[in-house]
Write a sequence for this structure.
């Protein structure tokens, strides 16, 4: 009985392979590396029935994750987030089979916990003492959290404009935190120089191969939650793109294991109109994106002007007959409010963008009325207090409440 | 096959019984009412094996919950929160079997979601159109959330000093929100007058019988997560007391069903030194508490100067050979920081108080080294940004990171 069927690291661009049991970052050709498993052996050990008996965390899929020894698993119980039907909103929008997969209900309140749990566990297994990364906030909070639990030092650099609460998360967990007067690409450059100078473990998006392995579990869970009959459309807010790359990777792995059929969900990359490099590349039929100048959106997590894995996102979208679509800040704030008042879901701005996107794609006919549509909400709205403007009447103890 | 084995409402003080299928609030004697089930019939239908096959939410225990019809279940996937071993902290504190049950990983980021999910579902089943309640913040956020999902109007009154983020939660979910220049008892009096004047459904703590039914599921889950061999000590931050009353009720029900043995965990009510009416009553051997004057603590959720269910809390503590203990704000902030840096858990101040309490009870010998000890963390630290003070260096894009 193997805990993991980790086999090798592989470059998706030049197909070079690497030993998975030494620290690895990018391929010599500059591409991110992907983790490969012995799926045939895994499918002999793991069954759908066995899965049902396991605890509701992403570690239920440990055979398909890169951590070799259970002692190295650093977990806070992350994963198996709820799949929530949106009956009232679905009826209003003529999508009766509309769902949210709610990544607000996970440690750190953001899907970034998945990548951090698996990434930090594997870093611990590989002997890492200090890791460093740039972040738009949530990833930093998550990696600081799991690094604290693992006893690994974390050096985090985030833009000054990132959500304030994520500073607190990094700080209380004991990370060495720095702000930068710039965007995530500026933070990335600072981290890159620090890694080179000090020999830290580079944990930037896709610059180590294991974060994606944590995030792909969203794909496994969706397949399992739909009883292995995958939905028709999945909409994903896309910044660095690891979530959508991961879901596509997971679905392909399940296909190879024979657990799902030929049909895949159409994957939709949702961006903000103020930062839409993937949408532009998709519209122009290009294999990768151009740096988006002066990028700007209230959905801070998808303010990524140029993603290292852009070509992998575009591949996932094209290979599944998906599409890419940009949403304005005004539209996504309206969608955020509508999800809360109609369904009781207080989602992050990034997650809200997927509802606005679904609405537009339904109106255009790209989504059909009978299709099963999943909005991926990547985090809780609680981390973005500034998106809600509240003026509340103040009463004195002797006052009475008005009727309406 | 019954969805619920709801049998009747019963007064724990004068033992009067009430029809459960009409709206009910307090007993004519002034006591809260408790929900009773046909446990014998329930234990014939529900088995421990069957439970394993059910989804990881509190609705897995639906036979022991008051909602009669599945169509009335208002859910966001709440429940089955993680039970997290604290190995490093446990070793430091000589409690090798120390755990956190983490209610930060639940919709709305607080255990209040449990009471709201079940309470709102049952209110919907009973035909409620408008509910009203006072809150220290988190309960209001949770009830506003589930009321929005149910299509029920919510009128919420909270102290001006309650956590700001909970205002946003109420507002974005469309509740009618009011602040009061006072404490929760002042908010309660305003709501009481509003209920009388306008005929709203009174949803104050213990003034409707179903909130406790949601919260008791923490007790079911703990029993199930410990494979029906319950832990030795459970520490619970105690304000209104519904959580600890609910856990005690759940454990007694499991005993009556023969699912757990005679031994119960010792229940510890943890309060703040600035608001410790239950601790005082426990020390003085009294059956109920006195209103605590000028109450004050940073752990806002347990700033409850006089709880309606105080006698039930004291009963739960006494009947399980438990105790009550007060923690200073300084101690709980230290504990909050220690949980984060050592275990990667960013808990709310109320939850942090349980660690400080466990430490003191271990030092005094009240907790033995080999005992299995559970800290109940009632919510995520993300909702309390002000408890973390951060000063972060600001870099320019051309700057380099220092070594240490």
């Amino acid at each position: 009985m193997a805990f993991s069927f980790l086999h090798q690291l592989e470059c998706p661009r030049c197909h070079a392979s690497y030993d998975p049991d030494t620290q690895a970052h990018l391929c010599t050709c500059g591409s991110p590396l992907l983790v490969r498993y012995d799926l045939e052996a895994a499918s002999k050990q793991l069954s759908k029935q066995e899965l049902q008996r396991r605890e509701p965390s992403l570690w239920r899929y440990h055979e398909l994750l890169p951590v070799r020894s259970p002692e190295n698993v650093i977990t806070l119980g992350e994963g198996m987030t709820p799949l929530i039907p949106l009956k009232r909103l679905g009826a209003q929008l003529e999508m009766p089979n509309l769902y949210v997969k709610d990544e607000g209900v996970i440690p750190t309140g953001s899907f970034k916990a998945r990548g951090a749990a698996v990434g930090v566990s594997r870093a611990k297994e590989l002997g890492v003492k200090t890791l460093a990364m740039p972040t738009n906030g949530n990833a930093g909070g998550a990696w600081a959290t799991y690094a604290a639990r693992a006893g690994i030092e974390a050096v985090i650099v985030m833009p000054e404009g990132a959500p304030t609460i994520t500073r607190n998360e990094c700080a209380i967990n004991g990370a060495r935190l720095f702000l930068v007067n710039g965007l995530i690409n500026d933070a990335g450059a600072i981290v890159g120089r620090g890694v080179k100078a000090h020999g830290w473990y580079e944990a930037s998006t896709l610059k180590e191969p294991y974060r994606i392995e944590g995030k792909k579990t969203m794909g496994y869970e969706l397949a399992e939650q739909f009883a292995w009959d995958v939905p028709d459309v999945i909409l994903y807010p896309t910044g660095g793109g690891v979530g959508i790359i991961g879901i596509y990777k997971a679905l392909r792995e399940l296909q190879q294991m024979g657990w799902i059929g030929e049909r895949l969900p159409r994957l939709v990359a949702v961006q903000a109109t103020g930062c839409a490099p993937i949408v532009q590349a998709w519209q122009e039929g290009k294999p990768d994106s151009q740096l988006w100048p002066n990028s700007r959106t209230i959905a801070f997590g998808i303010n990524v002007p140029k993603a290292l894995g852009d070509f992998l996102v575009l591949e996932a979208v094209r290979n599944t007959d998906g599409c890419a679509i940009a949403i304005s800040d005004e539209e996504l704030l309206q969608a955020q409010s509508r999800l809360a008042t109609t369904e009781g879901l207080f989602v992050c701005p990034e997650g809200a963008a997927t509802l606005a996107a679904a609405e537009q794609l339904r109106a255009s006919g790209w989504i059909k009325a009978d299709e099963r549509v999943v909005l991926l909400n990547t985090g809780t709205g609680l981390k973005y207090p500034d998106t809600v403007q509240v003026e509340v009447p103040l009463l004195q103890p002797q006052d009475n409440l008005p009727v309406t």
Summary: Chain A has two domains: 6-74+110-202, 83-105+216-387.
